[in-house]
# Entry
Amino acid sequence: MPAGTIALTNNSTAVTGSGTSFTTELKANDFIIAIVGGVTYTLAVQSVNSASGVTLITAYNGPAASGVAWTAVPNAALVGITAQVAADVAKAIRGLNLDKANWQQVYSASGSITVTLPDGSQYSGPSWNSVVNSVSGKMDKSQNLNDVSNKTTALSNLGALPLSGGTLTGSLTGTTIVARNGVSATSNGANMAQQGAHLVWNEDNSTGKGSIVVNRGSGTGGFNIRIVNSSNTVENANFQFTVDGLLYAPNGSFSVGGRVRAFSAVNSTYLEVKVDGAAKGINFFDSDKTLKEEIEDADEKLALEIIRKIRPVAYKFKDKTFTYQSPDPITGEMFIAEGKQVGSSHKYGVIAQEFEELLPEGVITNSDGKKSLDPLEQLGLLLTVCHSQQKLIDEHSEIIKAMGVRLKYLDEQHN
# Structure
């Protein structure tokens, strides 16, 4: 703050100082800053007359005052301040004008707009009209796809299937595919403790084992595989699995590439299986005493008579041809192939028809008319014959032994 105070007179260019040193603190074109009645006055100096007298360029237009504190401002400083203020004002006005133009584009333009910054740089972006138009008709996230107008077409575009209907093409893969009907890719995905059937493609990841699990719950349980016609009005075959571990296969079912065909049992000890079109027999040799009744000794005389009449033969089974399905090694497609089974040769055997004439119970007639021998009946026949022959051997041995003793006695008497 400069020394001293000043006195100002209304409408006068003369400034009088008290204790001032105008000659050292001011020069022409400098400014005096004074506050009178709460109003700041900037007074331009025309000339410095003395240490206590100054003439102003423009007369002071405020109220008369004395003992006023003052501040000297060099001309260069005030001009610089004024120029900076003018520059700042110009910059602010320029920015306001740019903002006005930019905001007008944001509100009124369509499509993309270019925004200009005060420093002259620019960037482009969408106007509000463009944003509004782009989101018009878009889905509401909170609706969780419920606002899709055509859900069927949308699912088709995504390659997905609706909850009902539709056709799945290609393979269904995954590690945790689970549905409420118990179909699961892993045993962890289905509740095996729930009653019903569960199909498990990969029950044990370490072995690749799959299972069909049937939980009987409080019911009778069991599992069926049914083969029906196209309209599900006729049941062609029904394979039944029971809870006690039995499998019931329909009569005449094929398996093993069509080469093996199972039939019903011919009787309680004989099961017929058809292989390559030829009926084959499987015997079950039940012989427990508790299963039998009317037990009596076999007729040894009849057994010897049958054995005497049996004609032993050597023979060879006829060669057979058969058809089966086989995959093409290149394309993998199945085609019908033909195979040949060479008949085996045997040194010893019998003819079933001839044996049947002697012992009808020892021959089984298959469904195709071909005949098979009952090994259990044959074994019984041979045991009976062996038993009878052994008795004859024992009797003859005793006779021979007695004759030997007699001959020895006669020989001793002769000598």
